[in-house]
Amino acid sequence: MAQETVREDARRTYTHREILKILSGLLLALLTSMISTSVVGTALPTIVGDLGGQEQLSWVASATLLTLTVSTPLWGKLSDIFGRKLMFQVALGLFVAASMLAGLSQNIGMLIAARAVQGLGTGGLSALVQVILGDVVQPRERGRYSGYVGAVFGVSTVAGPLLGGFLVDADGLGWRWCFYVCVPLAIVAFAVIQRVLRLEHVKRDTRIDWWGAATLTGGATSLMLLLSLGGHEFDWNSSWTYVLGALTVAFCGLAVVAERKAAEPILPPRLFRDRTFLLASTASLFVGLALYGVLIYLPQFLQIVKGLMPARSGLMTLPLVLGLFVASIISGRVVSRTGKWKLFPLVGMLLVAAGLGLLSRLQPDSTFPVIGVDIAILGVGLGMSMQMLILAVQNSAERRDLAVSTSGVSFFRSLGGAVGVAAFGAILTNGVKSEISAKLGTTTAPAAKLDLGTPEAIRALPAAVHDIVIQAYSSAMHTVFLVGVPVAVLGFVAVIFLREVPLRSADRLPAAGGQDRHDHHDGHPRHAKTS
């Protein structure tokens, strides 16, 4: 490999053709990992019913989101040390191995463990796509290419549920193929990346912040356990609640100390002195809450309350995807032309709040056109918000902080998703349980026949009990979506206070005075190598 010393401000520029070649490999891998998430979403009611019951649904989803969340900022740091391409391929390899294990799962514990490893790989892929895009594209042009990332998200969101519904319904296949189907796609993505991805690796003399990684993981895990198990496995007013709450606070406090003392922190404290990073991360957290809450629990409403088969349930996500797809492409191109970005997340967060409010009004007899319009409004809002927040942070970040700031925003979006799935799962489970318990006494139907396993099992319940279960799920879903409305409003408030700085035509260099333009810590020049 050729090796040369380069200045931080002399990094090469890439032509449009070169960028498209690189983007093709990145987006193929990203499409694969995103399909793995959305394909399982439609099949989850069947999967958890087969392996362990509907009350385990939030854990199957949360395991992936938890590891995705805590690993996201670490991938950015590892790519600074070992190179973007190598870490991207490692993440893809982890994803493939975990997908195979998930498909082979014999019990709910094995599935949750495999999904956790799958989340590690997905965290690397989702974070490093944005980091690599920031490396090869100038800030003013990122809106144009970020639109492609949003489009891939839209395609995977519609392709996944459709594919998942087909696999679950198809004779001779079943839900295990929801995991197997991603493997050949990932292998092709690996080959494409090996061929087209040629990046200059700026090698830094740095270390991994293991204490920061451990404390951030501990804090996120404690919070997830509290939200997932509270009110279900133990009462909210119990010693378990207080212990997990105390652990969450303690780990978060230790994380602050660890990051302040670390030579190369995963989340440098200086980022939180950047108003744009702080507010965009806050807004991204609320976007994650809304996004993952809908993607995970909307299929339950469609399959259990509306009685749709998985394939038709997947089709009902088309309006969300089309809205997200169109909004992402159009907003990205407008931002590239004008450099102005703030209007899009402002309007987007209002549409997210409106969409969630409309979804909270759905009833068992709601018509499919009404459901489709509600979902489409939400999709447009998400498409206008997600990529713009990352662009805003990349635009304000110094070049040395490009990877950590990008992965940092992704971390908070994933954290919002993980907390949202756990919290919404607790609301749903407790709501269904209390509603059924309250109403079972008013019917003579035998409670012993109550089976909340797969949607098919629920549909097979005696008529009187079935009606109670449907009403219970409908009422609980109403609460889930309604809780998301103030969350989206908080995201809107955070965007209001963002200061709009038009997208630049070149990256910012580290500020003079205290940090060298060529190296951040030891004053030695960095070395770049092309792999």
TrEMBL record:
GO cellular component: plasma membrane
Main location: membrane
Domain Major facilitator superfamily (MFS) profile: from-to ranges: 22-503
Classification via Pfam families: MFS_1 (PF07690)
Family, per entry: Belongs to the major facilitator superfamily. TCR/Tet family.
Residue span of region Disordered: 509-531
Keyword Transmembrane: yes
Keyword annotations of the record: Cell membrane, Membrane, Transmembrane, Transmembrane helix, Transport
Official protein name in the record: MFS transporter
Membrane topology: Multi-pass membrane protein
Molecular function, one GO term: transmembrane transporter activity
Localization in the cell: Cell membrane
Keyword Hydrolase: no
Membrane-crossing residue ranges in chain numbering: 20-44, 56-74, 86-104, 110-133, 145-168, 174-196, 208-227, 239-257, 277-298, 318-336, 343-362, 368-390, 402-428, 476-498
